Amino acid sequence: MIVNFSELDYSLWEKIAGLYKRKPITHAYLFYDVVYDCKSTDVSFLLEDKVIRGMLQLD
C-alpha cells in the first residue's frame, strides 16, 4: 500500500519516528521535514505489513 504524507496519522508518525531512532543520520532530512517543514513536504511511503519498506521524498 502506498501512503502519501498528506494522509499522516499517529500510526504513520510512529513509523517515521522509529526510522529516525534506528538510523538518525540516514533519516535526518525526512524527520526534519516532517517536524519543521510539513506544509511543503512531499513524501510517499510503501507500507507492507504495517512496516515502511520504502519511501520517495521529493524536494
Description:
The chain has one domain. It has a three-stranded antiparallel β-sheet with strand order 1-2-3, with helices on one face. It contains two helices and three strands; from the N terminus they run E-H-H-E-E. It has 59 residues and is an alpha+beta fold. The longest helix has 13 residues, at 10-22. It has helices spanning 10-22, 28-36; strands at 2-4, 42-48, 51-58.
* Overall pLDDT metric: 90
Give the C-alpha Rg.
10 Å
The general outline is: globular
Report how far apart the termini are: 22 Å
Helix content: 25-40%
Strand content: 25-35%
Unreliable stretches covering 5 or more consecutive residues = none
Number of helices: 2
Number of strands: 3
Oligomer classification: single chain
Counted up, domains total 1
- The SS-based structural class is alpha+beta
Largest sheet, strands/sense/barrel: 3 strands, antiparallel
**Topology order in helix (H) and strand (E) letters:** EHHEE
Strand order of the largest sheet: 1-2-3
Give a topology summary.
Blueprint: E1 2-4, H1 10-22, H2 28-36, E2 42-48, E3 51-58
Antiparallel strand pairs: 1-2, 2-3
